[in-house]
């Protein structure tokens, strides 16, 4: 009897310590072991989108972030969401990082930190292919222009072309649909996304006009003061130097950056 009682006690002690070990593992344990939440846009081709078959997030940003994480020894998990939820969630430290073709702006820098720039972008106007009266931003006065909520395009329309009637949608596809259906005259958005959209879905239906309107650089976002900024910048530099960045760039955009 005594022996049985002892064994029972031993088993209990062992299982409690095993549980405790599990607990400290999943509840953070050492900081480097923590799985970091990387917020991303649920649809911004070809930077991030959910793959139709697997449901997995794919794209340039996704590959880049995975390469950075591998280089820096960080465990990450993507959390796709509407674009306008990313900056507020970084500000309140709900996400550890955010990658979403997010332009580095002075306004955003007031509430979050950014990595070094990783992609040069800019805004461009899209119109129906047979449109002949809109050739640039100077022709947008009085016109209906669609774009996406919470983006630099929405700000641009508000601040630089207030004479245009801007309509913003949470998903850019809605903005493009409005353009295809002729319910708006133009769409203003990031050039690489519009170019990709035309190439894959709207050849001969939508065209780009005018020049790229602003130079914008994409950066990875962090809560203010995050110690991940330095680690990510270091890893970004390494993968730029060792050819990994170029490989990823080529996969999604065809040609190497100059
Ligand atoms: N580059 C734009 C911005 O930062 C749009 C990004 C996006 O829609 N994912 O506002």
UniProtKB/TrEMBL annotation:
SUPFAM superfamilies: Periplasmic binding protein-like II (SSF53850). The keyword Signal applies. It comes from the Bacteria. Keywords: Signal. The keyword Cell division does not apply. InterPro entries: Iontro_rcpt_C (IPR001320), PBP2_GlnH (IPR044132), SBP_3_CS (IPR018313), Solute-binding_3/MltF_N (IPR001638). Gene3D superfamilies: Periplasmic binding protein-like II (3.40.190.10). GO terms for cellular component: cell envelope; membrane. Residues 1-20 form the signal peptide. GO terms for molecular function: ligand-gated monoatomic ion channel activity. It is found in: Cell envelope. Residues 35-255 form the Ionotropic glutamate receptor C-terminal domain. Residues 35-256 form the Solute-binding protein family 3/N-terminal domain. Belongs to the bacterial solute-binding protein 3 family. This is Amino acid ABC transporter substrate-binding protein (PAAT family).
